[in-house]
Amino acid sequence: MGKRVAVVLAGCGVYDGSEIHESSAVLVHLSREGAQAEVYAPDVDQMHVVDHVRGQPTQEKRNVLVESARIARGNIKDLAKLDVKGLDALIIPGGFGVAKNLSTWATQGKNCIVSKEVEDVLKAFHAAKKPIGLCCISPVLAAKIFPGCELTVGHDTECEKWPYAKTAETMKELGCKHVNKHVTEIHVDAKNKLVTTSAFMCNAPIHEIYDGIGKMVKEVVRLA
């Protein structure tokens, strides 16, 4: 039997949910590694819904679980039903939904609250010494929950290639060690079994983002 890996989604779409290309890359690479993905999402309302053509919020209301089911092709479970005992690892792709629906990072930064369900799941895998893979913005969840951990969201100096580099500085303010890495690289915090990569925190060609996520997934499965 291959490793069973929980993949936690935050909706469907970069601006208000999970980043679709990152989520797809995680699922493809897990399949390539012979691992079995089990997809979960919280059964809660999204913070808001963004029109992805205009980049502006709308008056619409959507549910995180229902929207995440689009990516999972309907094969998804309520995050409240996740049981760490039957699983070998956890991966959370990025997208603004992580900062809006899984936490309040988008509005409160380092003073954010991580949703209780998400925090409980992360702490359960950590306590069981099972690996956790995080990409793009999702390492901020670990930064908030595991003080002193080592993470990467890419680079800590803002430029055209790294438009979200201030995130690294904020994570340092939470007491984490940020390690600068290129988009095709990963960082492994061996003590905490955290594997991180920057993904779309970098303005890079999509194949490089895909390759970086592949290395993250491969290492998570190896550690499991």
UniProtKB/TrEMBL annotation:
PANTHER family: ES1 PROTEIN HOMOLOG, MITOCHONDRIAL. This is GAL3A protein. Gene3D superfamilies: 3.40.50.880. InterPro entries: Class_I_gatase-like (IPR029062), ElbB (IPR026041). The gene is Gatd3a_0. CDD domains: GATase1_ES1 (cd03133).
